[in-house]
Amino acid sequence: MAGNRLDVGILGMGTVGTGVARLLLEQRELLRSRTGIDYCLKAAVDVRWDRVDLDLAGVVCSEDPAVILEDPEIKVVVETIGGTGVAYDLVQRAIRAGKHVVTANKALIATKGRELFRLARAHQVDLLFEASVGGGIPIIKGLKEGLVGNKILSIEGILNGTSNYVLTKMYEDGMEFDEALGEAQAKGFAEADPTLDISGYDAAHKLAILASIVSSTVVDFEKIHVEGITEITKMDIDFARNFGYVIKLLAIIKNTAEGLDLRVHPTLVPKSHLLASVNYELNAVSVTGDFVGNTVFYGPGAGQRPTASAVVSDIVDLSRDLLLRNGVGYCNRTIDPCEEPKLVPLDQVSNRFYIRFFAYDAPGILAQVGSILGKLDISIASVLQMEIHGKDNYVPLVIITHLAKEAAMKEAMEELAQQDYVRGKPLCLRLHR
């Protein structure tokens, strides 16, 4: 960092990269007046410059990453390529070249974080990733700074806008899953291939990052239990409503004495809970600390401008740190890449459950179902059977349970699916608690 000027390079000029460039150029004077530092976008790299609609006069524009990675004046590299292929290789090269890296790439941090944090530590540079979770919501900064004096007891978050939009449309407008997803795609809230979003894995990437901060270790993304929303029907939305719940895809961290309980799955949330009113593409994260109590972070979880805002906040934090330490040292001590967290196996967790399946409408069927659940110590709290008869005389049956072990419920679901009076695969969801 020369004097009070910080030269920045951007790898990847897609939606987010262009947003970061736009903010750095258009808000340059505002940033200088607020920080005393001149943030100079010196170079940008992309392989498809035809898609970039931005005046980049004075900025070196190239298809060759070397213009950034080999320029000794560029101290901060912004990675907005996405994915874990080219982005991973270039981030490693940037770190080895002694450059600090700011990224919005959740998949990269969630799956390659351990290697990158170790490399950053070895080269005494920073790797910052505020924009990787929650878009413009300052959840990572909140955990690292605002709540630094707290032991985080739990986190519950709506972290995927696509899934939240789909579930909202199913609840508010009575749409079926496919119709709601099609509208999300038409409005740009879902990708042409939405698999990562509706499967729950996008939220799981973000959960892995938050769990790593909570535990000050690197959480293995592959060890997180993940369920998506593809099996939820309008019928389930309506049944949940009748019981006083809204179905949301939640990313959950419970910090227990036995270890971290990490899960992503659809959850029946009481209508009175704050998360139940978070609709459409918006995100929200509820954090409970031992001193602060309950807090909620809410706002746009994606989009060019919110994500760019988060990236630039990391650049500003980094520049202030560089001034304090005169460019020497390593400040990213939030996550220790050498430590392994203790995780609680899902089978040992207890939850309340929502079970829905189609059962043959005949005397004694409910007693047989109760017998299967009872022998596994699963107690029934409520039962709802709708008189919706088809030609085959099967009707939807819904059961809400009291607290039960995940292992017991898994066994019960497998046994129910084998009964000749059950048609199709039973659906099991969890209740918020």
Quick gist of this model?
This protein is an alpha/beta fold and 433 residues long. The chain is built from 14 helices and 18 strands. The strands form three sheets. Strands 7, 8, 9, 10, 11, 12, 14, 15, 16 and 18 form a ten-stranded mixed sheet that branches. Strands 3-2-1-4-5-6 form a six-stranded parallel sheet, sandwiched between helices. Strands 13-17 form a two-stranded antiparallel sheet.
The global form is: elongated
Report low-confidence residues grouped into runs of 5 or more. 327-331
Mean pLDDT metric:
93
| Beta fraction | 25-35%
Distance between the termini: 49 Å
Computed CA radius of gyration, to the nearest angstrom: 24 Å
Output the number of helix runs: 14
Task: Please give the largest β-sheet.
Answer: 10 strands, mixed
Per DSSP E runs of 2 or more residues, the count of β-strands stands at: 18
Task: Assign the structural class, choosing from mainly alpha, mainly beta, alpha/beta, alpha+beta, or little secondary structure.
Answer: alpha/beta
Share in helix: 25-40%
Mind explaining what this structure looks like?
It is a single chain. The protein has 433 residues and is α/β, with parallel strands linked by helices. The protein has 14 helices and 18 strands. Helix 4 links the parallel strand 4 and strand 5. Helix 1 crosses helix 12 and helix 5 runs parallel beside helix 10 (201-215). The longest helix has 22 residues, at 304-325. 43% of the residues are buried.
